Amino acid sequence: MTRMLVTGGAGFIGANFVQHTLRHRPEYAVQVLDALTYAGTRDSLAPVADQVAFVHGDICDADLVDRLVAESDVVVHFAAESHVDNSLHDPEPFVRTNIIGTYTILEAVRRHGRRLHHISTDEVFGDLALDATTKFTEQTAYDPSSPYSAAKASSDMLVRAWVRSFGVAATLSNCANNYGPYQHVEKFIPRQITNVLVGERPKLYGAGQNVREWTHVDDHNDAVHLILDKGRPGQTYLIGSGDERSNKQILELILALMGQPSDAYDYVPDRPGHDLRYANDSTKIRAELGWEPRYGDFRAGLASTIDWYRQNEWWWKPQKNATETRYKLLGR
Asked: N or C: which end of the chain has fewer CB within 10 A?
């Protein structure tokens, strides 16, 4: 058995990755380290709870991280503060977790000679013009625009420096926006879905023209496993489905799939510095590693996501009131 440590394994993408790994890759024995902040819950691991060794702890705890890394063969590093609005309100947790936490992981894998894969975001590149056809590539210069993306950019740079300076066996990936089960209701797609389910009107920032590339979380995690299996140490791989849609188009599709009028939503003030467009050129991972998204039909993937939230109110309902209270304080 290959011993795998997954940091942030009770969060959205991490929990899906853990479930995906245990369903499809029986050669891995999985241990999860998660701080269980508001964005992480052991409920997201309920289907595989008896197959996972769970540790409640902080990736900034150097002694704990050192012990867990020493007991592992490979580390997949998802743990991060990840919500832009929260980073604008209070940047400190983003600097601590995303930068100091990643440094702590890097020092442990360096000491013990372990393999590391670092999960990042396309938001580190800043944004693209709405009327452009260009996409981010692995060579695009970093230009983060929020405390969240700046902290993730910093963590990426640390990983690259530890690869070059100390020979750490690490790979990196930057993914487009993810959607799917177990995503916290503060995020755009689940917020709109759950608003409809509780009888509230969905909310749209600004004019809703901002464009995102949406990738199903299972496709993202397929890509991560391919990188673990065949990725070249020190390399970065961009992950993205190629499906770009404006926030307005996404919201109106959600409403259509849920049997609501297409204009049954409210406009709210835009967030400060709201990035215009994200789009990844995923040629490298497709050509080198053979990755292809299974959810090529976004409408079908979104419909299955809506069904999951309909069927799993027990999971998201406890988060909902606190999330909407926080949004009201932010005026959004």
From this structure: N
Based on the residue annotation, tell me whether 122 is a catalytic residue of this protein. Answer: yes
Taking only the tens place, the pLDDT of each residue in 18-46 is 999 999 999 999 999 999 998 899 999 99
Domain that holds residue 36: 2-179+214-239
Identify whether 316 is part of a domain: no
Residue 104 lies in a domain: yes
Q: Which of 34, 58, 81, 123 is catalytic?
A: 123
Candidates 122, 219, 243, 324; catalytic one: 122
* Per-residue DSSP letter, 277: B
Q: Residue 228 maps to which CATH number?
A: 3.40.50.720
Identify whether 237 is a catalytic site residue: no
Query: Is 244 marked active-site?
Result: no
**Mean pLDDT estimate for the chain:** 95
| Token digits of residue 168 | 């750490």
